[in-house]
C-alpha cells in the first residue's frame, strides 16, 4: 500500500485540505472533536467529487448506450471471425472507429474517482497510525483520533485487534458491529444499483454477451466490496457507502428520465409522456422534445414502445413533428369532453331502418310505407314560385308505386303456392 500511496501522493494534500475546510464548517456546528464533524466532512468530500464527475458520468451513459447499440454487430463479427482472433480484433477496432465509440468511456467515472479514494485511504490510515499527512497537523490529528461514528473510530478496521481498538478509545464489539453493518449496506447498494440497470434499463429485444457480463458483475461487485471492506477504515467505508448511494440515486434519475430504447424503463417513460402530452396538448419540457424528436427521426425503425407512443398521440388527435414539438393533427382533430379530457372526434353513427312486423309486411305494409315516403317527399319538396289555383284536395293523389312481389303475396293469401308460378306447358295433341 506504501507504493500506491506514493503514486497518489500528489493528490493527498488537496484531499486533506478539502476535508479540513469542511471540518471547520461542521466543527463550528457540532464540535471539532465529534464524529458528526469528521463524518460529514467525508460525505461532503464525496458529494463534491461526484458533482465534478457529472460530465464524465454523462459521457459514460452515452458510451454505454453506444456499446449496447453495437452489440448485434459485434456478435456478427465474433461469429464470422471466430477462428481468426487477429482479424476479429481489427474488425472490432474498425467498428469502434466508424461509430466513434470508445469502450473505455464507460469506466471513466471509476477511473477518475480512484485517485481520490486512495488519497482518502492514505489520509485515514495516517490518522490511525498517528502520522500527519498533507495539511493535517498535530492538533487536527488528535481531534480526528477522538472522533467516533456510532461508537467506532474513523481509523478503526474490522480486522483490528482489541489492543489497537482500545488505543483509539473504543471497544472491539462496537467497531465490528458498525463496520459489518456498513459493509452490508455498501454491498446491498451496489447490488441494487446493478440490478436496476439490468432489469429496467436494458434492451430486452436483443440478447448479447454484454448482458451476461453485466449480470455476472451484478453478483461479483457486492462480493468484492464485502471481501475488501473488512480491510477498510470506518472513514473509507463512509466514503464508499456515500458514493454508492449517490450512484444509485443518480442512476435512478437517468433511468426514469432518459431510459435505454427498448427497455422496460422506456415503456414506463413513454406511457407517462403520452399522458402528459395529451393532457397539455403539447410537449412542455425541452427533454421531452428531445425524446420525441429522436423517436420521429427513427421512422420505421421504431420499437414496439415507440410505435405505441406515436399511435397514442394520433388517437388523441395529436401529431409529433420532426423538431420534437406536438401539434393538433389535421386528419383527426381533438375535441374536449365535459370533463376536459381530449378525445378523438367520433363519426356519426349510422341509423338502422326500423324493422316491420310480419303482419305489416303481409297486409301491404310495403305499399303504405311507399305512400308515406311519397307524402314525405311531397311535404319536403320546396314550393314552386308560381302559386297553383287548385286546392290541394282537388289534386289527384299520385298512385302508389307497386312493390315487387306484392301480387305474389296477395295470391299466396288466396291459397296459391308462394313464389312465381311455373308457365303451363302446351298440351300435346
Provide mean pLDDT, rounded: 75
Q: How many strands, what sense, and barrel or not for the largest sheet?
A: 2 strands, antiparallel
C-alpha geometry: elongated
Radius of gyration: 41 Å
Short structural description:
By secondary structure, the chain is mostly helical. It contains 17 helices and six strands.
Features:
429 residues, mainly alpha, two-stranded antiparallel ribbon, 17 helices, elongated
What does this structure look like?
This protein is mainly alpha-helical and 429 residues long. The chain contains 17 helices and 6 strands. β5 and β6 form a beta hairpin. α2 crosses α3 (35-52), α4 packs across α5 (85-99) and α12 packs parallel to α14.
